[in-house]
Design goal:
Strand content of chain A: over 45%
Distance between the termini of chain B: 31 Å
Number of strands of chain A: 9
Number of helices of chain B: 0
Helix content of chain B: under 10%
Oligomer: heterodimer
Strand order of the largest sheet of chain A: 1-9-8-3-4
Distance between the termini of chain A: 37 Å
Structural class of chain A: mainly beta
Number of strands of chain B: 11
Helix content of chain A: under 10%
Shape of chain B: globular
Number of helices of chain A: 0
Largest interface: A-B, 26 and 30 residues
Chain lengths: 115, 113
Amino acid sequence: DAKTTQPPSMDCAEGRAANLPCNHSTISGNEYVYWYRQIHSQGPQYIIHGLKNNETNEMASLIITEDRKSSTLILPHATLRDTAVYYCIVRVWGGGSGNTGKLIFGQGTTLQVKP
Amino acid sequence: DSGVTQTPKHLITATGQRVTLRCSPRSGDLSVYWYQQSLDQGLQFLIQYYNGEERAKGNILERFSAQQFPDLHSELNLSSLELGDSALYFCASSPADGTYEQYFGPGTRLTVT
């Protein structure tokens, strides 16, 4: 799985958009970008994933650059409850031999949403 | 609520003892994963089971073992406990084998004294 680089911490004002960057310059053509978050000591929570097109769901949007070497997770209207550690993980999607589901977590970005 | 349940929520035990952590996956999910989160190591993958069979192993100590039962619940057994085993232990499940999104339980906090 490709390595990812994230800033260790970010601040965001409540109600504003939070834009969390992730660099994955060694990503392969069949690797997806996944985002999870962990609110203090709770189990990590799946947010979104994508391959090359921008993706949006009820939680967030994922913008992947055309060369796929970086991406940005966008929380459109951050609330205090979005304060968490956000993890960007790159991996092949789907089943098949060798595609074990284990997640390799880095250090992530600690997002602090401030009132 | 992810639909994954873990018991107990908290466990305090002494060094040298053995404990069992239990996980019930989301309804219909066949894969179960165990992760350990300690202060100095971050979130680390331990082991995965798929439909009762061991599928992948991470840096799991020989003192630790796991199994998945026919009803798909899983247990993580930790023996000869050491102070360094104090950590949060998370279970996650996914619908199938492979890199699908995983749904995590609330965790079991183990304290070894």
